[in-house]
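Q: Sequence in, structure out?
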Amino acid sequence: MSGGTELSDLFLQIKINEDQSLLRAWLKILFDKEQTAPGRYFDREFITEYTSGYSALAAQLAATDLEECITNTGIAAEAVHEAAGMIHGSERIIICYAMGLTQHENSVDTIKELVNLLLVKGSIGKVGAGICPVRGHSNVQGDRTVGIWDKLKPELAAALREYYAFEPPTEDGYDVVKTMHAMAEGRVKFFMGMGGNFVSATPDTELTARGLRNCDLTVHVSTKLNRSHLVHGREALILPCFGRTERDLQATGEQFVSCENSMGVVQLSKGVLEVDDMDLMSECAIVCGLAEATLAPAATTVPWAAYCQDYDLIREAIAACIPGFEDYNERVRQPGGFYLPNGPRERRFATPDGRAQFSTTELNPHTLEPGEFLMTTVRSHDQYNTTVYGMHDRYRGVHNERRVVFIHPEELAELGGVAGAIVDLVSEYDGQERWARTFQLVPYSIPRGCIATYFPEANVLVPSGVTARGSNCPISKSVRVRILLAPQQ
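A: Exactly. Output:
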């Protein structure tokens, strides 16, 4: 075998969490050129017609120190300028990002900076252009669309009130980080997970475990066993269900569910495998059965039994309560499904002035103390979320081991270690130390000052008290740690 496919025209190996500095550098390069050739580097027509806040951004860019931004990134200045030239020369720009951009203290500001770049280039609301958050899991995208969130939006509350004739809650719930602390403090006594592997997926593993054990009852609806089933409350239930790959036969016939992909397309998902264990129930059947067993008939107007028998009825309710799902049952059966409404795609913006908003953000580059590294967590080749299918990471040439630390070869030597040396990792936030013991050092092409470990093995080091400003997302991708060589190497 020979040849292959080039993955990129230009690869920039950036320091962990310096994306904001890189985006600012590109904006600064293009802005300075725009001052000498107005309208050539920025889309002035788009900025004037569809945006607001540009003057504040322009003032910030005028005062930006380009050399400082480039230094922060750890990338050679020539490469940064080359990339800026590619951006300038592109009529249509798509910027994709995944979870790695969202799990830092400054993640919200970084994504605002990303949007700034697209706006100055007029690459919003244009075919072949735009912002593309690659979430990678249909539950993440679709759940939020239909209101599964710790904050119930007033318009959805009103729709539910009208459709079901009951009064929805008015208080906010807990997001993941708040749930962890509430369980540990005894303010949450019941935990129910629809799939997932909560104890492994969350930061601050020991705190999460204490919280789950502090509950009176923990319930997991699962297609297979995972580590969270071993860390449970005083009483624990595992409710096995079949998955989307299996045929779902209910009283009215074969059923299907729907999911939303990263492009905002809703598609049907229908299993084809026969269920080996006929005692297994679907997730819908479990939820509806629990509701019927728990709620007195007079206390609910939701037709639980009918929902269990015919999922079309659930989709009719969604269509009645969620904008964009009109004729849901008909459209989801069409090949390829259907697009949900997307205002920016049509250059409609749900802002007070109806325009896309430029942002001004502050750069906060990481300053590490002597002996500190900035750690990011990554997934291996044989891994989906917290499910590890094998012990071979073909991406990085690691086999039969997951407790590893990827480190720059020169820094490995400076530590006094060799490849395979055993180390402990420690992070310290708010005076609390968190330890991850018995990891192996692996020399790797990674920027100096940065290391990488696998998720979830290193989640124990991620603090739960320090999160992304504005989203409360864990900072799993930029954790300050120290590396301690185990004695007698």
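Residues 357 and 434 are 40 Å apart (CA to CA).
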